[in-house]
TrEMBL record:
Organism field: Chlorobium limicola (strain DSM 245 / NBRC 103803 / 6330)
SUPFAM superfamilies registered for this protein in UniProt: L,D-transpeptidase catalytic domain-like, PGBD-like
Protein's recorded name: Peptidoglycan-binding domain 1 protein
InterPro entries given in the database record: LD-transpeptidase_YkuD-like (IPR052905), LD_TPept_cat_dom (IPR005490), LD_TPept_scaffold_dom (IPR045380), Peptidoglycan-bd-like (IPR002477), PGBD-like_sf (IPR036365), PGBDSf (IPR036366), Transpep_catalytic_dom (IPR038063)
Annotated GO MF terms: carboxypeptidase activity; transferase activity
PROSITE patterns in alphabetical order: LD_TPASE (PS52029)
Pathway annotation from the record: Cell wall biogenesis; peptidoglycan biosynthesis
Keywords: Cell shape, Cell wall biogenesis/degradation, Peptidoglycan synthesis, Signal, Transferase
Similarity remark: Belongs to the YkuD family.
Length: 560
């Protein structure tokens, strides 16, 4: 029997070194297999306690320092007793670390090579046993935190990010302590992984695109004249193969024709829709540009957005509004289910719509627009100094601090800047107004809100970065009916009647509704992955942060 157990453990070790999954089924049933021939727990506890006492908290950067503190609390809670005394638990952790690649994370961030080496050749000295224990615990805590909250701190990329992370680490440590006590570390990590269907489908998409990339990806289609139905072009066979590889055109049929057929045009339409392009079936410069983005680049794009999902998806409430800035869309989710969606217009690249969360609290019908400070400084005052007709064209009135209308001719326009301008420029309500007939207020420091717009034609554009930061909604009256949550009092007829009065009025929502303004360049619609252009150039910075090695965990002295 002892020979059988020894042989089985050797097989388990070999599989781990080769990177194969190891599960509890690989362990000896009915017996607990220790992780090592270990020194007494009291000796290891002394080693572990000494490690944290010797640790220089100022030697590490803020991120590593946070994880060091987390690890110190983790061991202090168990009076510095060693954590990893069961080989089965270590095998589970190794399996979980390997699977982290499926989430777009990097197994090397979790000491996988050192852990596998120790697993194959268990350490015998108390010093190395303590080091092994520390590496395993740091790997568990780091991976757990990254799966639950993301590897990259979103605030480090964008200070506007305002989802509250208070007490996250402490709650996580308590949860993992319980999981280890129950001998289920991998199950605990699986539970921390986002359960949102969009996240799960993105993971499946990542696996599919990795298969394509590892097989060599697809060949680029040379630039040239646009492909239009009926056109003959030597590049058509190459385009046909490319559309088959991405599933837009059925594969398995050999066709060497150089004619751009109706079937190919329909396949291009599917590709265009999936990639947020104008859907016309004509493969012009923009479409070919998207077609030529490599499978490896798409793999990275999916990884980045899995990370973005980890930042917010576990904080979603049952009912909320989600605006995808990069996708130019708004979704209303009610009780966890998609209820309604529409197109939106977002900020121009030099006036980006910020990423943040706020609660929608009330609606204003027939709003009167007051020009905000940025537009006042950069647009309005320079235009008025150039020509007083700007005020008439924009239907703007000059209002003083007492609310009185002021004659524009009495204002010394050249004597004021936006910083000391003593008036407000207010636009009258109506279909001509910048806010249209309705705005949705969610108080925030950015003075950003959702609103109607008179420029409906802009919604037909595939890329809609035209605003000064606020969100223009294509079908705002439909949204109003949903958020007011009263189909009797606030139906289409009553809303139209309220707007028809022309009077400015405010209606409080019966319940605040969280609004998430997010930036997602890859999303899942069912089993289909949709890609969007990085209009604010945010992907590259996130990619560098996500691919950067985590700060090294330094094992301090005490004979280690």
């Amino acid at each position: 029997m002892r020979a059988f157990v020894f042989l089985l453990l050797l097989l388990v070790s070999a599989r781990v070194v080769q990177g194969e999954p190891v599960s509890l089924q690989n362990q000896v049933i009915g017996k607990k297999t220790t992780a090592r021939q270990h020194a007494p727990d009291s000796v290891l506890a002394a080693q572990l306690r000494c490690h944290f006492q010797a640790m220089d908290s100022n030697a590490a950067g803020p991120e590593r320092r946070a994880f060091n503190n987390q690890l110190a609390r983790f061991y202090a809670a168990r009076n510095y007793r060693p954590v990893w005394t069961e080989r089965a638990d270590i095998a589970e952790l190794i399996e979980a670390i390997g699977e982290s690649e499926n989430d777009g994370l990097i197994p090397d961030d979790y000491h996988i090579k050192e852990i596998r080496t120790f697993f194959l050749s268990p350490p015998r000295t108390p010093e190395l046993q303590a080091k092994y224990d520390l590496l395993l615990s740091d790997a568990l805590l780091s991976l757990a935190y990254h799966l639950r909250f993301g590897k990259v701190d979103p605030e480090s990329l964008d200070p506007n990010w305002n989802l509250d992370g208070t007490a996250r680490r402490t709650a996580l440590e308590y949860r993992l302590q319980n999981a280890l006590a129950a001998g289920r570390p991998k199950a605990a990590l699986d539970e921390l992984r986002p359960k949102h269907s969009g996240y799960a489908e993105l993971k499946k998409g990542l696996a599919r695109y990795r298969v394509i990339a590892r097989a060599g990806g697809w060949q680029k289609v040379p630039e040239g004249d646009s492909f239009r139905e009926g056109v003959r072009d030597s590049r058509v066979p190459l385009l046909r193969k490319r559309l088959q590889q991405s599933g837009d055109l059925p594969g398995g049929v050999t066709d060497s024709s150089k004619v751009y057929t109706a079937a190919m045009a329909n396949a291009v339409k599917r590709f265009q829709k999936r990639n947020g392009l104008s859907v016309d079936g004509v493969a012009g410069t923009a479409t070919i540009g998207e077609i030529n983005i490599s499978a490896a680049e798409r793999v990275d794009q999916i990884r980045l957005n899995l990370e973005r999902y980890r930042w917010f998806v576990n904080d979603l409430e049952p009912t909320y509004v989600l605006v995808n800035i990069a996708g130019f869309t708004l979704q209303y989710i009610e009780n966890g289910r998609y209820r309604w969606g529409t197109r939106v217009i977002v900020g121009q690249p030099y006036r980006e719509t910020p990423v943040f969360k706020a609660d929608m609290q009330y609606i204003v019908f027939n709003p009167q627009w007051v020009i905000p400070p940025t537009i006042l400084a950069e647009d309005a005052l320079p235009a008025i100094r150039n020509s007083r007709s700007y005020l008439d064209r924009k239907k703007l009135r000059v209002i003083d601090s007492r609310g009185r209308v002021v004659d524009p001719a009495s204002v010394n326009w050249s004597g004021y800047s936006a910083a000391n301008f003593p008036y407000r420029l207010q636009q009258t309500a109506g279909d001509h107004g910048a806010l249209g007939r309705i705005k949705f207020m969610m108080p925030n420091k950015h003075v950003i809100y959702l609103h109607d717009t008179p420029t409906k034609n802009l919604f037909e554009k595939s890329e809609r970065t035209f605003s000064s930061g606020c969100i223009r909604v294509e079908n705002p009256l439909d949204l109003a009916q949903l958020v007011l949550q009263d189909s009797v009092k606030w139906n289409k007829t009553s809303i139209d009647s309220t707007i028809g009065t022309g009077k400015t009025s405010t209606v409080n929502l019966p319940k605040r509704i969280p609004v998430f303004l997010l930036y997602l360049t890859a999303i899942a619609e069912g089993e289909e992955i949709q890609f969007r252009r990085d209009v604010y150039n945010r992907d590259d910075r996130l990619r560098k942060a996500l691919d950067s090695p985590v700060p090294q965990y330094r094992i301090e002295s005490c004979g280690l």
